[in-house]
User: Fold this.
Amino acid sequence: QLQACGGGLVQAGGSLRLSCAASKRTFSTYAMGWFRQAPGKEREFVAATSRSGGMTYYADSVKGRFTISRDNAKNTVYLQMDSLKPEDTAVYYCAAASRVSITTMAHEYDYWGQGTLVTVSS
Assistant:
């Protein structure tokens, strides 16, 4: 089970940090990712981290502004979002993948959190 939190309303240029806590003791064996879905749009990849956190991938739209990290001792993955833009407004979902070391593909993730809403005002 994945529980995402940390969303909210922020002005453009501001920052938020999302957290996603996992209940599984085997958290460190899962690649983790963040996706988002804006109103009227399809879900899109945001960021991913490998099992150890040593490798990360980012969507071009967030590269240089967002940072994904994980703390395997706390079974938690984070998404630090800086320099937020109105187009970052979306529901953000965390996900866990058991069969790959890291992936940007939604269909390769086995478990999904419930989502947390991020709203960036202009």
